[in-house]
Design brief:
single chain; alpha/beta; 6-stranded mixed β-sheet; 3-stranded mixed β-sheet; 14 helices; 12 strands
């Protein structure tokens, strides 16, 4: 799975405006379909107050946050699975994404034409998901043809694998034929491995973003409620955001100015921050920290990773020569105020190769060079 979030949706829903806000770098945003032809890629800093609290208590020369990649992909049209619009290009790009962030229009604007002339979030979500399901269905049907041939193979191992594969393929074909995403199927770990190489789009996690106007940031809108109903049916989450407002906030020069702007809008946190954190979490990513005089840094690791694997995020030599990890949790530092007091309180631990790293750990690795 890619470690990135692909921003998708119908034309003129605010995808490029959202991307501009995320990156603070203008992408082409226009009132016509397919203004985004080539995907725009942005490496986004993860807002994390813990990193800056660590830096206050252990002053570094520089602070380096963790990052996540967002990709602004061409607007999807009905018939994309048959190559309509930029369909083939769109589907190729989205197969490379880790999760799908579908932007759904929940704002009225006579100057920005809706692709179907009518605001209907549930219909828009369905249109996108049906196209993705049709594309996956085509992939599955081709795989069924290949697997049927393998059933007759003289190679016993190949025939046995094909025999195990067919029931899963038929299940996928039935589900996708009804327009249901493949991720709603409860597959075993072994079944997941069998279909992994198919790279089905609808197996990917999907996050719905309700793009509202400034008057409906609280989510008290029938349009947002429609998105939330769709999210519940898809077993996913909704983030409410005003992309236009966020793009204005992103243009402000200082963090203090951004905080004041948010406060004046009655917000304690930006929608972008919620979106970034949600995407990061849905990718199965977590953060540990290193702290010292050279730098305070946030490092990204996969949830469930053990200490040597987390060490390898810094450098492969750290993983190969791993001996031990000195570990404490950032909350211990915030509570006690210094590493010296953490040691005195017995909160600093030495952990070995089997230690499962926790989100918020502060780590120092011992390794053989």
């Amino acid at each position: 799975m890619g470690l990135n979030c692909g921003i998708v949706g119908l034309p003129n829903v605010g995808k490029s405006t959202l991307f501009c806000a995320l990156t603070s770098v203008p992408a082409e945003a226009a009132n016509y379909p397919y203004s985004t032809v080539e995907p725009n890629i942005g490496i986004i800093d993860i807002p994390d107050e813990r990193l800056y609290k660590i830096a206050e208590l252990i002053p570094p020369k520089k602070i380096i946050p963790a990052t996540v990649e967002f990709v602004d992909i061409a607007g999807l049209a009905k018939g994309a699975s048959r190559g309509e619009g930029l369909g083939n290009q769109f589907l190729s790009q989205i197969r490379q994404m880790g999760i799908i962030v579908q932007v759904v229009r929940c704002f009225e604007d006579p100057d920005v034409v809706h692709v179907s002339q009518t605001l209907d979030p549930e219909s828009d979500i369905e249109s996108v998901n049906i196209e993705l399901a049709i594309a996956d269905l085509e992939t599955v049907e081709k795989q069924i043809q290949r697997t049927e041939k393998n059933l007759k193979s003289a190679n016993k191992d190949m025939a046995k694998e094909a025999q195990g594969m067919m029931p899963i393929l038929e299940l996928l074909k039935s589900s996708l034929g009804e327009g249901k995403p493949a991720r709603l199927l409860d597959l075993s770990e072994e079944q997941e491995k069998l279909i992994y190489d198919m790279h089905l789009i609808t197996r990917k996690k999907q996050l719905l973003v309700a793009n509202v106007d400034e008057n409906h940031l609280s989510g008290d809108s029938p349009l947002v409620m429609a998105v939330e109903r769709a999210a519940a049916a898809l077993d996913t989450e909704t983030v409410v955001i005003c992309a236009k407002l966020e793009s204005e906030i992103a243009l402000l020069e200082t963090a203090e100015e951004r905080k004041e702007f948010l406060a004046s809008a009655g917000l304690s946190e930006s929608g972008l921050s919620r979106l970034i954190h949600t995407g990061y979490r849905m990718l199965g990513l977590r953060t540990y920290f290193t702290a010292g005089e050279p730098e305070a840094r946030a490092w990204t690791f996969h949830e469930g990773a053990k200490a040597p694997e987390a060490a390898g995020v810094i450098h492969t030599d750290f993983q190969k020569g791993f001996i031990k990890a000195e570990v404490y949790h950032c909350t211990d530092l915030f509570e006690l105020g210094s590493e010296q007091k953490i040691k005195q309180a017995g909160k600093l631990r030495l952990e070995g190769k089997e230690y499962v790293v926790k989100d918020g750990d502060v780590m120092h690795f011992r390794f053989n060079a």
